[in-house]
Write a sequence for this structure.
């Protein structure tokens, strides 16, 4: 029934919730299309074909379905609201410190991530013990882990929130401009050297800048803009994207611009943030329907778990499909697209089943952000989360990285759960 709001959603920005759920659903559906295991006629082995990339229209479709910038925009909104609420509702000894808030948010990311890393390490070890062909196992790892860049990018955004929100309150456009200047500097280095991996220096500036666009929604800036101005800004973002990608140094394909991240993602994020504001009344009305609220809760109740586990599950489903001899239509045929429908249904059922099991790890990741903590263990934990993600971007997922990532994340979770309060000065009150 329309017109009522589930108590779980009361007091929330329903359009932001809708955007977050839609972004997660888009990511899962996109990866279902991008994972296709086919038999190599020459060797009889297996290889993955990202079928949509074979079509000439794929690049412009990525302008519509590359939804990760929007995910960071709504994440920025949520972070600003959370940090501002924590600072305004507690005072004195009960106040939330920057380190305490970052610790709590980083743990919500690191703990479910640790579960995945450990599972991958154990699964890899088990596969080798039972004698699974090493070529198959090693070939599967890059596909299973190609989404783990998110951990590094989002971890950096979380760690920067106390600083970026303070800068935004004082000089919102100047603080955003500083981040964009850093992005431009990295782009100049990347283009000037001809070495694309210099772009990894932009992992922080690009995603933190996109994340900060969410602050403009949180402080009401976007809400105060007339619709025509939002349309102009969205169009300007896409126009800038068209101009930028007309040059050889930037790809028209938004998947290629993802890792290492480029200025193209910020322009896409700006357009998506403006479109989200334009669609807010419609999304708000949609989220007042009980069936939509139910879908939003099923998909969005454990967002980190769903994001982290969906790709390994999809790869496993496709592997089983290939092993049992499921239909393997030509990748450029209509039959291939038709068979994606039942495969998508199977993948979604499997993903939601795994999330229902693994989601308890995310559910138990909450700690009191008001607990007094020092920065050192929090920063060490941040490094332990970010470094494996950066290495995955650069070298893809390898057996050694799986093992190292598992150890790093377990240590990070241990540090975040057992941080000690700052030492009191001699003579200070208890």
């Amino acid at each position: 029934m329309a017109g009522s709001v589930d108590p779980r959603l009361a007091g929330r920005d329903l359009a932001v919730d809708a955007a977050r759920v839609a972004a997660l659903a888009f990511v899962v559906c996109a990866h279902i299309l991008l994972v296709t295991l086919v038999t190599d006629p020459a060797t009889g082995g297996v290889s993955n074909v990202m079928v949509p990339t074979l079509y000439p229209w794929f690049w412009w479709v990525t302008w519509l379905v590359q939804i990760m910038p929007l995910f960071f925009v709504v994440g920025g909104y949520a972070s600003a609201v959370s940090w501002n609420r924590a600072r305004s509702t507690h005072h004195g000894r009960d106040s939330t410190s920057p380190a305490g808030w970052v610790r709590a948010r980083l743990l919500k990311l690191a703990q479910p991530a640790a579960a995945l890393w450990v599972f991958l390490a154990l699964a890899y070890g088990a596969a080798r013990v039972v004698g699974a062909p090493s070529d198959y196992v090693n070939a599967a790892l890059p596909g299973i882990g190609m989404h783990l860049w998110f951990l590094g990018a989002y971890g950096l955004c979380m760690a920067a929130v106390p600083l970026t929100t303070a800068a935004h309150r004082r000089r919102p456009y100047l603080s955003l401009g500083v981040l964009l200047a850093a992005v431009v500097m990295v782009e100049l280095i990347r283009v000037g050297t001809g070495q694309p991996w210099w772009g990894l220096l932009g992992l922080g500036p690009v995603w933190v800048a996109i994340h900060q666009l969410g602050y403009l929604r949180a402080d009401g800036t976007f809400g105060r803009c007339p619709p025509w101005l939002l349309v102009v800004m969205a169009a300007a973002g896409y126009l800038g994207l068209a101009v930028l990608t007309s040059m050889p140094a930037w790809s028209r394909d938004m998947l290629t611009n993802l890792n290492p991240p480029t200025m193209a993602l910020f322009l896409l994020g700006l357009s998506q943030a403006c479109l989200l504001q334009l669609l807010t009344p419609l999304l708000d009305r949609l989220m007042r329907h009980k069936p939509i609220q139910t879908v939003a809760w099923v998909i969005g109740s454990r967002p980190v778990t769903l994001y982290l586990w969906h790709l390994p599950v999809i790869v496993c489903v496709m592997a089983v499909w290939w092993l049992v001899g499921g239909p393997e239509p030509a990748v450029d045929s209509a039959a291939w697209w038709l068979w994606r429908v039942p495969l998508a249904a199977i993948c979604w059922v499997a993903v939601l089943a795994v999330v229902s099991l693994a989601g308890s790890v995310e559910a138990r990741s909450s700690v009191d952000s008001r607990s007094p903590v020092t920065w050192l263990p929090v920063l060490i934990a941040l490094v332990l989360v970010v470094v494996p993600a950066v290495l995955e971007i650069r070298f893809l997922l390898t057996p050694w990285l799986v093992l190292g990532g598992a150890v790093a994340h377990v240590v990070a979770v241990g540090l975040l759960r057992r941080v000690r309060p700052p030492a009191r000065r001699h003579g200070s009150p208890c």
In short: The chain has a mean pLDDT of 92. Residues 7-417 form one domain. The chain has one domain: 7-417.
